[in-house]
């Protein structure tokens, strides 16, 4: 099972120590190949990702990582949108912060409450990579709201082009 862990910026109320423990856990599970991609704009906190037991794949595009991975682990990142649009299982590591996310409220991901639950979920996905405890309807509702502004048949790119072409330059 190929797994990419994409944590949020630590200043977003992330439990950094527990995040490091999660990285250690991922590195210890022999049946999975895990990598970590720290948040793109981690800035001054980049040192928190030094000397981790997982390969740091900051240099790889997020969309390519989503294509490569069998499962995506997130904390509170918009990367969930790419993963869900690619139909990848998304495990939301709720136990690493105290925030509430829209995808959580929509039930559009596998909400993980503890490290033990994470390990069980990964073992479950290793056996059947499509068996997730959330449904297409929940994912579709989330994507409809976030990507398409509540209109599934909307061509967002076309709307954006129309907006730009109708803007006057002063």
Description:
This protein starts with a strand and ends with a helix. The protein is about 40% helix and about 10% strand. A 5-stranded parallel beta sheet has the order 2-1-3-4-5, with helices on both faces. With about 170 residues, it is of the alpha/beta class. The longest helix has 13 residues, at about 15-30. The chain has helices at about 15-30, 60-70, 80-85, 100-105, 115-125, 135-145, 155-165; strands at about 1-5, 35, 70-75, 90-95, 110. The chain is built from 7 helices and 5 strands; from the N terminus they run βαβαβαβαβααα.
What topology does this entry show?
Layout: E1 2-6, H1 16-28, E2 33-36, H2 62-68, E3 71-74, H3 79-85, E4 90-93, H4 102-106, E5 110-112, H5 115-127, H6 136-146, H7 156-166
Strand order of the largest sheet: 2-1-3-4-5
Summarize the amount of helix as a percent range: 25-40%
Radius of gyration: 17 Å
Query: What is the multimeric organization of the chains shown?
Result: single chain
> What is the CA–CA distance across the termini?
53 Å
Mean pLDDT: 85
**Strand content of the residues, in percent?**
5-15%
List low-pLDDT spans. Answer: none
Structural class determined from secondary elements: alpha/beta
Q: What string gives the helices and strands in order? A: EHEHEHEHEHHH
Q: How would the global form be characterised?
A: globular
Q: Outline the biggest β-sheet.
A: 5 strands, parallel
């Amino acid at each position: 099972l190929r797994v990419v862990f994409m944590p949020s910026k630590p200043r977003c109320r992330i439990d950094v120590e527990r995040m490091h423990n999660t990285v250690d856990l991922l590195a210890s599970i022999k049946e999975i190949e895990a990598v970590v991609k720290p948040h793109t704009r981690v800035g001054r906190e980049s040192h928190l990702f030094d000397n981790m037991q997982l390969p740091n794949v900051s240099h790889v595009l997020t969309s390519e990582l989503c294509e490569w991975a069998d499962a995506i682990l997130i904390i509170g990142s918009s990367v969930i949108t790419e993963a869900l649009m690619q139909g990848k299982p998304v495990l939301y590591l709720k136990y690493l912060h105290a925030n509430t996310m829209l995808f959580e409220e929509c039930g559009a991901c596998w909400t993980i409450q503890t490290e033990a639950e994470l390990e069980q979920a990964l073992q479950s996905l290793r056996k059947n990579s499509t068996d997730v405890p959330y449904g297409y309807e929940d994912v579709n509702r989330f994507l409809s709201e976030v990507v398409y502004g509540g209109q599934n048949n909307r061509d967002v790119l076309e709307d954006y082009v129309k907006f730009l072409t109708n803007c006057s330059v002063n």
